[in-house]
Amino acid sequence: MAGVAPPSSSSASGSASGSSNGQAGSMGEAGLSASRYYFSLEDPKENWEVGDKVGAGSFASVYKVRHKGTKEICAAKIIRLNNKMPNEFAMVKDEVDILRDAAHPNMITLYATYKRTNKVWIIMEYCGGGSIQSLYQKLRRPMTEDEIKFILREMLAGLAHMHAHGIIHRDIKGGNVLLTHKGEVKLADFGVSAQLSHSQQRKSTIVGTPYWMAPEVVYEGATYDAKADIWSLGITALEMAEMEPPNSKMDPKMAMYMTPSMPAPTFRKPAAWSSAFRDFVRLTLQKNPARRPSAAALLAHPFLADASIAPLRAAITLVRARAKDSKRARAAAAKAAAKAGKAPAQPHAIRRHAPPHPQHVPRRHRVAAKASPNAAGQANHQAAVLAQANRPIQPMRHRMPAMPAMVASPARPAPMPGLASPRRAAQSPRLGAHMRFLRASNENPPLR
């Protein structure tokens, strides 16, 4: 498998080798050995040097780490367990089991796991290219068809493998698809994934991120299967093409509830994309899950026939070059400021002047803002929208009721003829005189 090689140190590999080292019988913590994958009780910092934070979510943070023995660079997902959620550790074990049992070149590679007090460390392959979401944000443009088709082909290969093993990802989106420096595509974040048994081929809990959730996941009393991932893949295709998922201007929960009743999403500017791409997205976004092709069937779609890694690799190289140039520029500015005896500008001071969200812009300024778009401002807006959109929904014991149909507000009683507004009254001399009399009576009440 491409990517970072597994650490060869015995201390690291032993933590992920199962109970063969004899420690499993003396764990001292109930439930640690229940997983098919072994959680070491050693201090992970004895084997790993923790570097910069490279990602953060609602329930975990991801750090760049280096193994002290092999010097290999990996990623550590550190999850702080919540005592108020007794099933949280069981969900972590499920994620680890999926990474171990369903290994595939298009899935993130698992290397080691640790359990220390209320923290769980999952050591995984490091993907230096970041997520798809971060890539198009750094490019400050939508992704091209050539970039999108390769990503979709690799995602489908990973999903086809997962679905063949009875696993539903349930949270496919741009933020959960990672890229290596070489352009390899990896499905990640299996925290809400589900393993289907032979006797249970469908799930019924509401899980996922609202804008990417399939209609059948939201329906009350309905069940769903792996076809829910196909819908999320189609939404991710639109996300890459337009830098945000459909309906992202709506409140996330409102968008989730309205998904079953709204028409299937499509491109804002269909003419800008090839007919093959439009047909691919149309197939993935069928409201009826039975009409959606499987991941294996979509791999044969003509849109993916000439997919190549070269365009995506070029985009990643461009982003890395920009990052290096920006780093050198900041270092030069800091050096010049130190030489002049001035404090260098802080990044937060620059972000403070970022354009506000369009909803907070006064109405009289919105037309001017649309008339003179700014690439950096649009990128900042997309980042703010997706930060709100990417908050996943955890499994719920009871399903939410479906959103009731919108009911029109009752009609207002008809106003008296001619008295609807002062402007209409002024057009009639008789009515205008009557209104002036009423106004004068209110201002100067009669003496008694």
Automatic annotation (TrEMBL):
<feature type="region of interest" description="Disordered">
    <location>
        <begin position="338"/>
        <end position="360"/>
    </location>
</feature>
<feature type="compositionally biased region" description="Basic residues">
    <location>
        <begin position="349"/>
        <end position="360"/>
    </location>
</feature>
<dbReference type="GO" id="GO:0005737">
    <property type="term" value="C:cytoplasm"/>
</dbReference>
<dbReference type="InterPro" id="IPR008271">
    <property type="entry name" value="Ser/Thr_kinase_AS"/>
</dbReference>
<dbReference type="InterPro" id="IPR050629">
    <property type="entry name" value="STE20/SPS1-PAK"/>
</dbReference>
<keyword id="KW-0808">Transferase</keyword>
<dbReference type="GO" id="GO:0004674">
    <property type="term" value="F:protein serine/threonine kinase activity"/>
</dbReference>
<feature type="compositionally biased region" description="Low complexity">
    <location>
        <begin position="338"/>
        <end position="348"/>
    </location>
</feature>
<dbReference type="InterPro" id="IPR017441">
    <property type="entry name" value="Protein_kinase_ATP_BS"/>
</dbReference>
<keyword id="KW-0547">Nucleotide-binding</keyword>
<comment type="similarity">
    <text>Belongs to the protein kinase superfamily.</text>
</comment>
<feature type="region of interest" description="Disordered">
    <location>
        <begin position="1"/>
        <end position="27"/>
    </location>
</feature>
<feature type="domain" description="Protein kinase">
    <location>
        <begin position="48"/>
        <end position="304"/>
    </location>
</feature>
<feature type="compositionally biased region" description="Low complexity">
    <location>
        <begin position="1"/>
        <end position="26"/>
    </location>
</feature>
<dbReference type="Pfam" id="PF00069">
    <property type="entry name" value="Pkinase"/>
</dbReference>
<feature type="region of interest" description="Disordered">
    <location>
        <begin position="409"/>
        <end position="448"/>
    </location>
</feature>
<dbReference type="InterPro" id="IPR000719">
    <property type="entry name" value="Prot_kinase_dom"/>
</dbReference>
<dbReference type="GO" id="GO:0005524">
    <property type="term" value="F:ATP binding"/>
</dbReference>
<keyword id="KW-0723">Serine/threonine-protein kinase</keyword>
<keyword id="KW-0418">Kinase</keyword>
<feature type="binding site">
    <location>
        <position position="77"/>
    </location>
    <ligand>
        <name>ATP</name>
    </ligand>
</feature>
<keyword id="KW-0067">ATP-binding</keyword>
<dbReference type="InterPro" id="IPR011009">
    <property type="entry name" value="Kinase-like_dom_sf"/>
</dbReference>
<protein>
    <recommendedName>
        <fullName>non-specific serine/threonine protein kinase</fullName>
        <ecNumber>2.7.11.1</ecNumber>
    </recommendedName>
</protein>
